[in-house]
Write a structure and sequence with these properties.
2 strands; single chain
Length: 207
Amino acid sequence: FRLAPEHHVLLLVLHHIVVDGLSIDILLHELSQAYAALGQQRMPALPQLPLDYADVAAWQHSAPVREREGAHLEYWKHQLAGAPAFLSLPTDKPRPSVLGDTGALSRFHRLSPALEQALTKVCREHQVTHFMVLGAALSALLHRHSGQDDVSVGTPVSGRPHPALEDLVGLFTNTVVLRTRFAPGTTFAELLASTRTTALEAFTHQD
């Protein structure tokens, strides 16, 4: 496309290996602050960062962190022992001979105000978060359509457990597995309770 002479476009190309979703938010926020400051012919007043990504990488290789890795690894070995290798969902086309990650993108669906209020009510009654309710519902749906009583779902985590990491740019995100086992006659209330426990344990061992 063609731009008028007084219009400009800034294009940022960043590999995922150096930024995650939260990093993009940080970059855009600081970029907007710097742009506004320069428009007023003053220097941007961005706060000094207490540490950088290299500091975090060094900390991850420190002795105290390494000592905790064993406990995290043992948790995941126990949690995922015997988990099915894949989810056997019925499809409208035969499975390819070589499995891959090619597929359609999901669309965003906004919840209606009534459904959101009902969801919030369930959260209060069962002391769970919206994420836990929707995660339990997804697992129940996959259980229903696959017929499997053992379902594992991967979910991303921010990987920023300490407040000092909140304003850093880098790739901190990670993926944890939420495994759900279904017994005959399991109620949704029981499913919520087990999902809450599974999620809290997974987030505790996300490193």
